[in-house]
Amino acid sequence: MDPQRRRRLTFFTIGLVFLMSGIEYAVILPTIWRYLQNLGAPSYFLGLSLSAFSFSGLLCGPLFGLISDRTRTTKKIILFANCFEIVGNFMYFIGYSKWLLLSSRLVAGIGTGAGSSIFGFLTRNTAPEDRSTIFAIVMACRQAGLLIGPAFNIFLRLCDFQLGPFVVNKYTAPGIFMCLLWLLLQLVVLLMFWDVPLQTSRGPAKEEEEEEEEDDEGRPLVQPHDLTGSYGTLSTPPPRVQPVANGNLPQNSPPPSPPPEQSQSSPFRHFSVRREFLREEVVVLLTAQFITLFNQTALETMVTPLTQKYFNFGELENSIMYCVCGVEVIAGFVFVRWLSRRVAERVVLAVGLILCNISCVWCLIFLANPQGGFPWQLGEFIIGVFLQVLGLPFVAVAQVSLFSKITAEKTQGFSHGVRRSVGGLATILGPLWAGGLTSSLYVMLGVMMALLALLTIMMAFSYERLVERPTVEHADDSEE
Description:
Elements: H1 3-38, H2 44-71, H3 75-94, H4 98-110, H5 114-124, H6 128-156, E1 161-163, E2 166-168, H7 173-192, H8 204-218, H9 260-263, H10 273-277, H11 280-310, H12 315-340, H13 345-367, H14 374-406, H15 412-435, H16 441-462
Helix pairs in contact: 1-6, 1-7, 2-4, 2-5, 2-15, 3-4, 3-5, 3-7, 5-15, 6-12, 6-14, 11-14, 11-15, 11-16, 12-14, 13-14, 13-16
């Protein structure tokens, strides 16, 4: 098959993986609370079930990334991870008890760990100048899943029949539905995903060096103008040629082959966690990952109680609101894709942080204690949500793309696993923080504003370092 066709099909399959993860989130989330109530679960089980999904992904992300870096295989890891999604969603469908439901989300969350391997694969197979565009498309696929996911609930909530010993209703139907979708995705991955290198991600400097080396190999060992001085001597000996008395040159022999341990060395042979992750620019980007996801999930947790309290929104109104937000996020990713081709990632990150700061200040002023009548309160709420959602694509794409450029390419899977684990920790702590402070919005929003201010200061001091480091690849070589 044509390599370009393989490349397109492989990237299309990666988009489907992220689309599926968005659909699962949007299909499961609206019904899980009532499902738990029917099984006699206390209220804290909702937080446990949502956190269990993030917790298992947090643990498995670095592990799957480590395996992909060592084996350079991504397809098998995706197929293996999807098995946990299939089993977890089938357990959700069975749902005999609240503990089985909790376990189902824990098992399904393991499948999200494949995301670190996928980001490592994308980093290794895309050029640095195209990376922001590719990451923006992939992230937009998940947002598209979040957008179309609620549409599936329209017919899933009408299910009411028996499937052998199992009952299919509006609570169990999302589980068997996602189980079937993940099974179909397994077939797509088998047929349309290739692990072969699709495109080099090395910079133009390295390519020029390789071209020069190839040209050198094609040239004669001794040029006519190099023969100067007395007979049998060379003024500037070319590589691989030893000067010999009486002008006798040795026979042309191939260079000795490197030892096996050098030619197939482990990517982690000279790896150092301190050298890789405790650098200033890496700490800034990991902090950006944590704070933006912490604030995002905290606001998502706050929104539903807030709309119920002030606007009396029901499921329909909230669904419409989430759909509109999904459209805005997708449009934002499209704009970031265009913008990233014209400006540096650190500029995109700075724009996103400015928007997030403006949004948090707006929410702190107008939403913590809404004033005025219903139209004013609704307008203030819409503007706050609009600004918050608008800033997300800028920060998300810029920090992921920059992170891939300032960490070593040979260990990208593990590095992205660490990054996603930091994000997973944020998605666990964010809802827990907001859930206990829905009646104390000044405290909740004040802490979020302080975190954003801290991140902005860190980025301002480290702005000059937030650029691609070409020497990161060979940091290990210099220390040998």
